[in-house]
Specification:
Elements (H helix, E strand, L loop, with lengths): L4 E4 L3 H10 L4 E3 L5 H6 L7 E4 L8 E3 L5 E4 L4 H6 L1 H6 L1 H8 L4 H6 L2 H6 L5 H4 L41 H7 L3 E5 L5 E5 L22 E7 L6 E7 L10 E7 L5 E6 L9 H5 L5 H9 L10 H15 L7
Parallel strand pairs: 1-3, 2-3
Antiparallel strand pairs: 4-5, 5-8, 6-7, 6-8, 9-10, 10-11
C-alpha cells in the first residue's frame, strides 16, 4: 500500500471543501472494497477523507411518501429497517443476499453503490485491464469469462457490476443525492448513475471528481410482491452469476431488474411491459441483444429460469 494522508471531516460541506482542496482524494467510510484495492495498488489515492462523522446515517420519510436513506447507513441496518422490510422488501432481500454479516455491518449505502467489479483480470495487476489502466487492453476478452457480462459490454471491457443492493434499488427507481466539490447538490436517477463501458470503462458512474453521495431516495412504495433471487456458485458469500429483482403486482404487471449480466443493474421499460407474457418474453426483451461467450452463455437461460421460478412461486418471496 502506498503512503497517503488522512483527514476526518464533520459535515458534508467540510467534505466537499476537502475534496476541492485535494484533487484525486477519495472518501472513505466502511472501506470494505477501497482498502482491498489500495493494498493491491489498484487504487492509489494520496489523500483519504474519512466521512464517518458527517451524520448521514439516518433513514427518514420524505414528504412525497418515500424514504431517504443516508449515505452512511450500514447495510445491516438498512436491511433490518422495519419500513424497508414492509414497503421495499426487494431491497432488504437484496442486501441480505450480499456479502457476509461482518461485511454488511461495515459496508455503507454509498459505498455499496460504488464498489468496483470483481472481474479477476481487474484484480490481477499482471493482466491487461482497461478499467484498471486505461488503454492497456482487456485480458478478459478471450480469457476466462464465466462470471462476466453478456450484455451491454464493449470491445474494451466485459466486466459486471457486483452490487446486489443496486439491483434492488434499480427496481425501485431510486434517486442518488450528492454534493459536489463546489458545494452544489444534485439528484441522479439510478438509471443514469452508471456509465456504459464504451471505450472508457474506467469511468464507471456519472459522479464528478470530488462529488460525494449524501443519500439515496426511494420513491413512495409501489406495492406488489417483492422478490430477490440470487444464483451463485455457493450458498453464501459469493457474487451473483445471475440475480433477479422483481416486483409483481396482482394483475401480473410489474418490474424486473437483472444483476450479474452487465456493467450495471439491467432493466428496461420494454422488459417490464413484457412481464404479463411471462419469463421468456421478459428475458427476450432484456437480453435479446446479449453477446455471451461460450463460457457464460448459460446466463441467458439461467436468468429466464430464475425469473420463471419467481413467477411460479406466486406469493412466496425468495432471497
Amino acid at each position: 500500500m502506498r503512503a497517503f494522508t488522512y483527514q476526518r471531516v464533520r459535515t458534508p460541506a467540510e467534505a466537499a471543501e476537502a475534496a476541492a482542496r485535494n484533487p484525486g482524494a477519495r472518501f472513505i467510510a466502511g472501506g470494505t472494497n477501497l482498502l482491498d484495492l489500495m493494498k493491491l495498488e489498484i487504487e492509489t489515492p494520496a489523500h483519504l477523507i474519512d466521512v464517518n462523522g458527517i451524520g448521514l446515517d439516518k433513514i427518514e420519510p420524505t414528504p412525497e411518501g418515500g424514504l431517504r436513506v443516508g449515505a452512511l447507513v450500514r447495510n445491516t441496518d438498512l436491511a433490518a429497517d422495519a419500513t424497508v422490510r414492509r414497503d421495499y422488501a426487494v431491497l432488504s432481500r437484496a442486501l441480505l443476499a450480499g456479502a457476509s454479516a461482518q461485511l454488511r455491518n461495515k459496508a455503507t449505502t454509498a459505498g455499496n453503490l460504488l464498489q468496483r467489479t470483481r472481474c479477476p483480470y481487474f484484480y490481477d495487476t499482471n493482466q491487461a485491464c482497461n478499467k484498471r489502466q486505461p488503454g492497456s487492453g482487456c485480458s478478459a476478452i478471450g480469457g476466462y469469462s464465466r462470471q462476466l457480462a453478456v450484455v451491454g459490454a464493449s470491445d474494451a471491457c466485459i466486466a459486471t457490476h457486483p452490487s446486489d443492493m443496486a439491483v434492488g434499488m434499480r427496481a425501485l427507481d431510486a434517486v442518488v443525492e450528492t454534493v459536489r466539490a463546489d458545494g452544489a447538490g444534485r439528484r441522479i436517477p439510478i438509471a443514469d448513475f452508471y456509465r456504459p463501458p464504451g471505450a472508457t470503462p474506467h469511468l464507471e458512474n456519472t459522479l464528478q471528481p470530488g462529488e460525494l453521495i449524501t443519500a439515496v431516495v426511494l420513491p413512495a412504495p409501489v406495492g406488489g410482491r417483492h422478490h430477490y433471487q440470487k444464483v451463485r456458485d455457493r450458498a453464501s458469500y459469493a457474487f451473483a452469476l445471475v440475480s433477479v429483482a422483481a416486483i409483481v403486482q396482482p394483475d401480473g404487471s410489474g418490474r424486473v431488474a437483472l444483476g450479474g449480466v452487465a456493467h450495471q443493474p439491467w432493466r428496461s421499460a420494454a422488459g417490464d411491459a413484457a412481464l404479463p407474457q411471462g419469463a421468456r418474453a421478459v428475458i427476450a426483451s432484456l437480453l435479446g441483444k446479449a453477446a455471451p461467450t461460450k463460457e457464460n452463455a448459460f446466463k441467458v437461460a439461467l436468468a429466464e429460469r430464475t425469473l420463471q421460478s419467481i413467477i411460479a412461486d406466486g406469493g412466496k418471496a425468495k432471497s
